[in-house]
Amino acid sequence: MIDQFGGTEQLKMQTVATPELKPNQVLVHTKSVSVNPIDCKIRSGAFKKFKLPAILGFDVAGTITAVGADVTDYQVGDAVFAETAKSSTYAEEVAVNVKDLAKKPNEITFNEAAALPMASLTAWQAVIDTIQIRPGEKLFINGGAGGVGQMAIQFAHNAGAYVATTASKTNAALLESLGADEVIDYHTDDFRNRLFDYDAVLDLIGGVSLVTSYQILKPGGRLVSLVGKPDANLAKKYEINASHFSSHTDGKLLGEIGDQVVKGRVRVTISKIFEFSQAGVVAAQTLSESGHADGKIVIQFA
């Protein structure tokens, strides 16, 4: 957990009380968690209003050890996974709202289950619910190698879209295997020279590349950014619909995505697994902040 904002030196192992359950919660004994960029942003102080001290982490997979008074669909011993509404999962015991919870399929591991929640829910809600990608449309995913990008590629491909994305050359084969039709090496090529008249853009990078993304869209196109606030003047200039997007927890949808993994329609890519220790969590967040993880980063508990 962290007592103050800063670098990875602020990450400390501490003993705290077991969470008290509300009637609509279950207590999960953690088997695995995954690291998301927001974990590192919270630790660094990007969200100054975040209350300290705090336990980081939103993704968890494990087994239920206790249930609240109003819980009827889960019981002690169930294997589950979730994205929690409150940062709290870098811990041996986590209280989870039932509405955020899904039963873990037997066919996937706890590490795979922990890698799914925030990345897959964000990708689905952005590509399917917000952009509403349709068969035959062209979608550009700016930044395809991370957890959200890889899920977004698969969901768009399964929806029948033509998918272009940016990544380093070393990740091109992986992204093509997930369903990307075109992978542009951002080190050597400008996507504006390759992509024209696109129906939609999912921006996972922000900055200059968000601004230049407007230029590849056809009039009436849709631009959704997870990391930057779209420019209303540019949207008007290029006659497109641009919006900022934030995801939300959804246990029912998470369960459906888990079923897609079992059926082979969606694949979970884990970049590296670390042990749950102070050194392990530091190393996991360091890798996340480097931007060089080719998939999800998982922390495995003993």
TrEMBL record:
SMART domains: PKS_ER. Residues 6-299 form the Enoyl reductase (ER) domain. GO terms for molecular function: oxidoreductase activity. Pfam families: ADH_N, ADH_zinc_N_2. CDD domains: MDR_like_2 (cd05289). This is NADPH quinone reductase.
